[in-house]
Amino acid sequence: MGKKVVVVGAGIGGLSAAIRLQHAGYSVEIYEKQSIPGGKMHQIREQGFTFDVGPTIVMMPSIYQDIFRLCGRDPDDYIPMTRLDPMYEVFFEGDPIRHYTIGNNLPDLMRMVEAKGPRNAKGFLDYLSEMYTRYQVAYQHFITRPFRHRRDIYNPYMLVQAMKLKTFGSADRMMAKFMPDKDLQRMLSFQTLYIGVSPTNGPSLYNIIPMIELLYGIWCIKGGMHTMAEQMARLFEEIGGKIHYNAQVRKIVATDGRVQGIQVDDRLIESPYVVCNADFPYAMKELVESPRIRGKYSPKKIDSMDYSCSCLVFYWGVKGTYDHLSTHNFVISSQYDDNLRSIFDGSEIEHPSIYLHIPTQTDPSMAPQGQSAFYALLPISELGTAKYSWNEQTVKLYRDKVLQALTRLPGLENLKESIVFERVFTPEDFKQEFNAYRGATFGLQPTLLQSNHWRPQAKAKHCEGLYFTGSSTHPGAGVPIVMQSGKICAEELRRDEKGDSFE
Ligand SMILES: Cc1cc2nc3c(=O)[nH]c(=O)nc-3n(C[C@H](O)[C@H](O)[C@H](O)COP(=O)(O)OP(=O)(O)OC[C@H]3O[C@@H](n4cnc5c(N)ncnc54)[C@H](O)[C@@H]3O)c2cc1C
């Protein structure tokens, strides 16, 4: 049997690292506080309805599939996927509502942008070309590698690559340079919110997200996104790994700068290697006790860092079907700038923008016959920024606002009366359930100074045998990117065992 590795957390990062290490010959056991795998990729199954709690949009499908291929499996036997076309509907509030259907068929897109005039059409193509170039650099030189040493970034070659990323300038200012039309600018920059960053001050590099959607498509997995977590757990167990559910890790135990294992309840589980998938800032504050091992990530430093926004999500079982809507629908607030400002300054949101996901449009088995599953998400302040607290009144206030906005859409006038099942996740729930620090659902915000070599890395700096993976570590948030973090984490551990020459 190979050397033992224990993994704290069966989120996507933990599963990705665990499968790779088990496959490479280690003997891996995961300790997860929840009763099912996936972390934020959780699932609610009640009264015949199935909801994904967190992620819903599949981008970069090959990254999802690669882990199954690595283990000699056909991904279609585990996570059958279909490409969505159209990808989504965008509704701009106003009188009248402006409605766009966004596909990723180039002739249709050109018709849409040419209708806005030649400057917008040319700007759209320039935007795609510019972001494609930056994406190639980001993927080859930043997303797929660790920054273990200062020399990994501070060398002439990498500094030139970093310049090519052109990280300066905000996402929406960059779009304004390409396209004068405000609707187009917003339709191609709100996606920074997918990783909890405001388009008004998030680095323009994150405009690669809509480019990836447009050029590579968005996909869905049969049974919803949680299927990915379930099937990764299945694969992990098939290749000999073990998962302990309902097992809350209390401490990462280390002495003399070397990890000894983890403490679960009052038991010490000894292991020469520990991979921590619990959110990095939470883990540094709550699981690691020694100031020497924390290094620069003291509790004070953790509190002074920038966090992504959080999410408020309503899960509704709804009577009827809604064929005029897509699987993914975005309602952009008539007071969009104010909406963004409030999310990031913590004031109460007057007019929220809403993401309405209806998984039953592609997979009717996720609701009883003739009914639909609705998932309505508001990007909202994380707990450290919010100037209000979460209680029944806060939930009611936002529920009313969401219903008010959605019932203005054609065909949803009777939504309120059609709800037959309801659950809600607030930022407090994301904190309680998954230990997401400050309920920030996408972890540390990927500001310039919290990205790449400045972001927490896979290998702990001051503790041998301890590694991190997950959205607050490099390369960042979003399912495929976190899968990548799990890959880097496994590679870093193997690299240490083999000496610094691995790959
Ligand atoms: C509402 C929402 C919508 C999203 N939408 C998308 C989307 O459409 N597409 C996309 O790609 N991404 C999306 N994301 C982001 C994506 O879900 C995350 O980036 C990713 O799932 C994070 O994975 P992780 O492994 O870093 O963390 P987590 O999922 O948080 O995993 C950490 C795991 O550790 C466990 N844990 C924590 N502490 C302990 C402890 N002490 N002991 C034992 N176990 C512990 C937790 O229970 C959890 O299972 C969304 C996220 C949210 C919340």
TrEMBL record:
<comment type="similarity">
    <text>Belongs to the carotenoid/retinoid oxidoreductase family.</text>
</comment>
<dbReference type="GO" id="GO:0016491">
    <property type="term" value="F:oxidoreductase activity"/>
</dbReference>
<dbReference type="InterPro" id="IPR036188">
    <property type="entry name" value="FAD/NAD-bd_sf"/>
</dbReference>
<dbReference type="Pfam" id="PF01593">
    <property type="entry name" value="Amino_oxidase"/>
</dbReference>
<dbReference type="GO" id="GO:0016117">
    <property type="term" value="P:carotenoid biosynthetic process"/>
</dbReference>
<dbReference type="InterPro" id="IPR002937">
    <property type="entry name" value="Amino_oxidase"/>
</dbReference>
<protein>
    <submittedName>
        <fullName>Phytoene desaturase family protein</fullName>
        <ecNumber>1.-.-.-</ecNumber>
    </submittedName>
</protein>
<dbReference type="InterPro" id="IPR014105">
    <property type="entry name" value="Carotenoid/retinoid_OxRdtase"/>
</dbReference>
<keyword id="KW-0125">Carotenoid biosynthesis</keyword>
<feature type="domain" description="Amine oxidase">
    <location>
        <begin position="12"/>
        <end position="493"/>
    </location>
</feature>
<comment type="pathway">
    <text>Carotenoid biosynthesis.</text>
</comment>
<keyword id="KW-0560">Oxidoreductase</keyword>
